[in-house]
Amino acid sequence: MGQTECVSISYDLTSASDDPSAGASDRPDGPLPRVGLLGTGPWARRTHAPALTAHTGSEFAGVWGRRPEAAAELARQYGVKVYEDPDELFAECDAVAFALPPDVQAPLAVRAAAAGCHLLLDKPVATDVTRARAVADAAARHQVASIVFLTLRFARPTAGWVEEQAARDGWFTANAYWLGALFPPDGAPNEYADSPWRKQKGGLWDVGPHALSVLIPVLGDVVRVSATRGPSDVVQLTLRHTSGAASTATLGLGAPTAAAGVGLELRGAAGVFSLPDWSDVPGAYGRALDALLTSARTGVPDARDAAFGARLTEILAEAEAGLGEEGPGEASRAQG
User: Fold this and answer.
1) Is residue 330 helix, strand or coil?
2) Is 153 exposed, middle or buried (0-12, 13-18, 19+ CB in 10 A)?
3) Distances (CA, A) of 304 to 139, 154, 186, 210
């Protein structure tokens, strides 16, 4: 994957990530980069909009959504402009934050890059390899910075933990699991379950990027992947990495409530290391915006950029192809 330097911007960038509750009055004087939000769903309401408002190094400029009434309500709640046309938002913003389904996000991200906007993307960048590569290519061609919001790579203390483990040698194997209860067999779906793309694509695509975002920087890129399907929408990946280490990842959104959880264990010559707990998602999003603005200011691409996001899509698409035609919906019905 080639890296292209991003065009620099000269804004005064001051981070609010250490204090996600910091308000607009705490922002420094002087011009600030304007950030627009695309999307109005639960993540936009609970994470993106609050974090953009709290960030002292940028200005939350406005909102566009596919549902105009929801966009108007979110914009009114935060006192920002509502946009009826995404291209108008692109024209008036320096960066854009996405809270949209992946295959809606991807073509809009290409348009935003062409308009000169830096990209704070959601994961996965796309569920189609061609579309994911198009986003990475657009960011490089138009020399805009990009970041994919992969929670574990920005949350504390997990982000620092990943860097510590990536500095070690001698890894042997790793085991990751991310089992959500969005569609539990023993209870009602939660608010995030009201998402057609998650119902269609399942945990492989929704939480698979999280697991890979930790395994790859520590163990190296994936050179071979195989996948099998378990109960509900569970997918188990077996991976071989450039370091020679092997890993597994168990992914799903339909776990029983009591069985849900997240974990990752690394084993190597230095011992056994387990992923620490984390909880500061709004703070993590603020740090992702910090990283985007730093990349835009310095012209140095970030390792968690759109090119990395496209690589995640390539791996997940290969895994999905190995599962055959049966999707998570069919597997869930077969269990019933």
Assistant:
1) helix
2) buried
3) 13, 10, 36, 12
- Summarised one tens digit per residue, pLDDT across range 103-156 is 999 999 999 999 999 999 999 999 999 999 999 999 999 999 999 999 999 999
> Quick check: 82 and 62 in contact, CB under 8 A?
yes
Task: Please say whether the beta carbons of 174 and 147 come within 8 A.
Answer: no
Residues listed for the chain: 336
Q: Distance between CA 7 and CA 139 in Å, rounded?
A: 10
Full strand arrangement of the beta sheet holding 59-64: 81-82, 59-64, 34-38, 95-98, 118-121, 146-148
Helix (H) or strand (E) holding 87: helix 86-92
As a whole number of angstroms, the distance between CA 147 and CA 105 comes to 13
Whether the pTM exceeds 0.90: the reply is no
Residue 109, both tokens: 């991200």
Q: For the chain, list the strands marked E by DSSP.
A: 34-38, 59-64, 81-82, 95-98, 118-121, 146-148, 171-179, 222-229, 235-241, 246-252, 261-268, 271-274
Q: How far is CA 205 from CA 105, 132, 309, 328, in A?
A: 14, 13, 12, 11
Report the DSSP pairing between strands 81-82 and 95-98. unpaired
